[in-house]
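Question: Send over one sample?
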Amino acid sequence: MNRRNLIRALTGIAALLLAAALVWLGAPAAPIVIDPASRPAVHEGSTIERGRYLAVQGNCMGCHTARGGTPFAGGRAVPTPFGTVYGSNLTPGTSGLANWNADDFWRALHHGQSRDGRWLNPAFPINNTTQIAREDSDALFAYFRSLPPVDAPVPPHELRWPYNTQFALRVWRILYFDEADPVAAGRDATASGDLRRGAYLVNGLGHCSACHVPRNALGGNGDMLDLSGGPIPLQNWYAPSLLDPAQGGVQDWDLEDIVALLQTGKAPGAITTGPMADVVQHSTQHWTAADLRAVATYLKQLPRSATPRRPTHKAPETRALSAGARHYEQHCAQCHGAQGEGVGLYPSLAGNRTVLMGSPANLLQTTLNGGFGPSTAGHPRPFGMPPFVLELNDQDLADLLTFVRTQWGHQASPVSALDVQQLRGSAAR
């Protein structure tokens, strides 16, 4: 065979292999067969009440309840960079779990595959739900099956091509999905050791990495359980690194303070706002003291990984500092103090982690839309900060934030009007 024919033959073989790969990646998958040995014996732990508690731990209602709709009946629009997905119906209605069994539900949680073989969109945190033990999966299913059935159809996802194809989902799974060891998950579900139990909750039902994992352009990461922080897509908030004590890390905190923050939304020198306030409001404040302490133990021992230092930034303009000082005196000093020291129950801004983070996103969001902590049993009437979205324009906000980030010994980067405009414009409204 001459060289030209050899090249043609090899090209043809390569084309056939590529075509076969494309067909395999895009073809509907057969439902994964569930090993009967994985089914736990029915016992006291797999009760409806336990399933209710697990649903609260996972904050399942947050994505599976439309605004103003019936709890768990689905239809909640969840915007993503690739289009909008809609939370599924978890009630036993015909558009929900009516025809599902416990094996089907386990297949969805553990393998990320629907009852009919379709791969689930990773907006559903499959890298976290795969960590959940079969026993907990069955308890959740029992609880959802006990709910009043709702038959309202859920809108189909509105995703752009090719993200709306099984081909894209299969590629995503190959790159970023790792199934957990069900034996290990079963062991950790009822583990008595705080550290092991905390890891199970943080990585599984708590799905902390769903927000705190940095994501690339495909919405993935080499380690989907990473907690090193990153922007929350289309929400305009930044999930701080839980590995960096200068951001969201609690390695230097007392256990009691970590528990207090998760239980009440408030701890010495810290309050929860934004997406984390919703987590406290609807989920963690209802956890048992033992589970909160386990999570606190796990978060406290996370390895320290300081955020890389950014290049030295230029000094803020005199005009920006002068204008920012005026805005601070007019709008902020009464509650936060002339030197950012905080007044009464209002927090200090001097040395505040939110003020000093590399990304000004959370500081801007709080200034724009107000700072409101969750109302919890332990802190039923939290003080709030009024929004300034109608009082300050982009330049005003840039000057104010630049002033706060560069005073009282602060050396954070200045904020420009363009920064403010970009952060405003990328939010999902």
Remarks:
- Residues 3-26 form the longest helix (24 residues).
- Confidence is low (pLDDT under 50) at residues 14-20.
- Residues 24-189 form one domain.
